Amino acid sequence: MRNIRITPEDNLSSAIAFLESEKIAPEEEIVITLADGTHKGALMDRIFYNLPNPLTIASESGDAKKCALSGENCEAFHKDTENRAVITFGMECTRVTLRNFTIENTHVKTNDDASLGNQAEAICFHCDKGFLFCEGMEFKSRQDTIHVRGFSHFKNCFVCGDVDFIWGYCDTALFDGCTLHTIRDNRGDGRPAYVLQSRAKNSRPGFVFINCDFTAEDRGEGAKIFIGRSQGTGKKDSVDRWDSIALIKCRISEKYDSALWTDEGGTRAVYPEKGSALTGWREFGTVVVQSDGTEIPYDAKKQERHGYAMTENDLSILQREIEKTKIR
User: Fold this and answer.
1) Which of 292, 186, 178, 188 is nearest to 196 (CA)?
2) Residue 114: is its pLDDT beyond 70?
3) What is the mean pLDDT of the segment spanning 300-325?
């Protein structure tokens, strides 16, 4: 096992580069401990880990609010998803564990043209076959905060953003006891917001939220907030881009639109066209949290027409599939 301690005055990218030069055995575990403080990243010093060695990065104090990996990056600075995050994990990764620190992309939107660089991930797990486990983490950005492929499990984490701030071409991404927080748009009030855009693998569970809280800031008069929207190109025989999101016993602020999902007025195709136990837009046991804190059961009849109210049997099928992910 290789143990490395990094202080805010050190350079995480340099430490990873050193490990690469060492050419250590691929089965040797690497453990990186981050001392409290703000560790800078991104821009010309992007952080990229692409070793097969199992990796753990954790804060020394165990408190995400005391330890942060922070930097600015975006599409305008570095083109393509795998290049514009604060930290990226590449295709060669096997198992990555992150515990008890914050990753923040500080990029601030300056215009309405996405091509000019508003996409700004905090983390990019760009690995179809690996497994990402995050516990007690905070992920902060505005647009595209978390991008995941393959398999991932987020436990007791906090994620914030305003447009598609969780997305990716995943097989299964499990969010367990997490808080998903929609923030104000820095460009002004009234703009719509979306927590998720799923491009899940064909016939796979996609993004699954269990016992999670969906909270939101006031985005101004006329601003609608949705749990998910379609990317619009999913098809029966496509490898990915399926609109698969499940809400299981989640608590959703009344600030969110009661339809939960949107095809943006019929301008974006949704596939599957109707949810099921394992795929599509679906929910079970959702409650709506009122402004005074009271909770009322969600009326599934209010779902957007592609949404699906799961049965107890559907839930059992999904839970069995999720257990396979949790033990990877």
Assistant:
1) 178
2) no
3) 95
Closest listed residue to residue 225, CA positions, set 253, 258, 184, 192: 192
Q: What integer best gives the mean pLDDT of the chain?
A: 94
Residue 12 carries which DSSP code? H
In a shared domain, residues 174 and 297: yes
Sheet with strand 2-6: strands edge to edge: 2-6, 30-34, 55-59, 95-99, 131-135, 150-155, 170-176, 206-210, 245-248, 281-284, 308-309
- Express each pLDDT in 7-46 by its tens digit: 999 989 889 989 989 888 999 999 999 999 999 865 546 7
Which pLDDT does position 49 carry in this prediction?
96
182 found inside a domain: yes
Q: Which candidate, 63, 154, 132, 133, places its Cα nearest to that of 102? A: 63
- Which residues are paired to 180 by β-bridges? 159, 214
CATH number of the domain to which 87 belongs:
2.160.20.10
C-alpha distances in Å from residue 294, one per residue of 115, 250, 297, 303: 41, 14, 10, 21
For residues 213-232, give the mean pLDDT: 95
CB 169 within 8 A of CB 240: yes
Q: And the tokens for 138? A: 């905070």
pLDDT at position 327 is 60
246 and 328 housed in the same domain: yes
CA-wise closest residue to 107 among 62, 154, 142, 131: 142
